[in-house]
Amino acid sequence: MASKLLRAVVLGPPGSGKGTVCERIARSFGLQHLSSGQFLRESLGGGDAQGGAAVGLKLSSCVMDGFGSILAVFLPLIPAPFHCGACTGFPRTLGQAKALDRICELDLVISLNIPFETLKDRLSARWVHPGSGRVYNMDFNPPHVQGIDDLTGEPLVQREDDRPEAVAARLRKYKDAAKPVIELYKSRGILHSFSGTETNKIWPYVYTLLSSKIPPVLLDEEN
Fold first, then answer.
1. 46-51 long-range contacts, CB within 8 A, separation 24+
2. Strands 126-128 and 32-35, sheet pairing
3. Are residues 144 and 138 in contact, defined by beta-carbon separation less than 8 angstroms?
4. 43, 67, 157, 185 — which has fewest CB within 10 A?
5. Helix pair 52-66, 18-29: axis angle to 10 deg
6. CATH value at residue 190
7. What is the Cα gyration radius of the chain?
8. Where in the numbering of this chain does the Adenylate kinase active site lid domain appear (predicted)?
């Protein structure tokens, strides 16, 4: 585990790569990755070790984008004291951010700014294995057999809100909800924004920022 306490949140619209960034942060700095969706799966009896944080993250997006706040489920499950962690999928609204304030003082907030067209392309090309939450992208991470999960051989599905006609509305909804959250953290001087079209190009800057706050346990090139 990290030798210095750090509480961080990664914000970003659907398809921005929050899950990938959080997984790299957890691995590189010895932090715990808290996913609101993972907690929800476990609380509903559907969680398992297989699939890990990525599974929880995808469910988080589904629940929080399509079915409203999971505030009542998520907050009681955050470990107390919550000392070292990178949280993703939460908070998504100003109300959630203020609720989080009551149990956790954040040290750092990372905001991922990805162009609209890039997000639209990513989401429209995304297919999911419903049973595990495994995600494929037909442009840069396709399954071995089109439409089939690599591990189970079961059919993949495209979420309704990943369909091209739904993506624009979904992104507008996120933008409207996230704006006051971002302004709140900006006013506190803990917001750090990173722009780009590829996670691999954004990551070195995130790594450098975090390295100034907490000693890494892995070199950047080991990721």
1. 50/132, 51/132, 51/133, 51/134
2. unpaired
3. no
4. 67
5. 140
6. 3.40.50.300
7. 17
8. 126-161
Contact status, residue 210 vs residue 216, Cβ threshold 8 Å: yes
Q: Which two tokens stand for residue 12?
A: 């970003």
Domain count, the chain: 1
Q: What is the pLDDT along the chain (223 residues), one digit of tens a residue?
A: 444 578 888 999 988 988 888 889 888 988 877 665 555 545 544 444 334 444 334 334 334 333 334 444 444 445 544 444 566 667 888 988 888 888 778 889 999 999 999 999 989 999 999 888 888 989 888 999 999 999 999 999 998 888 888 888 889 999 999 999 999 999 999 999 999 999 999 999 999 999 999 888 877 655 5
SS3 217: coil
Going by C-beta distance under 8 Å and a sequence separation of 6 or more, which residues neighbour residue 23? Answer: 33, 53, 54
- Answer for the pair 147, 127: CB distance below 8 angstroms, yes or no: yes
**Is residue 70 one of the residues assigned to a domain?**
no
**Amino acid present at 170:** R
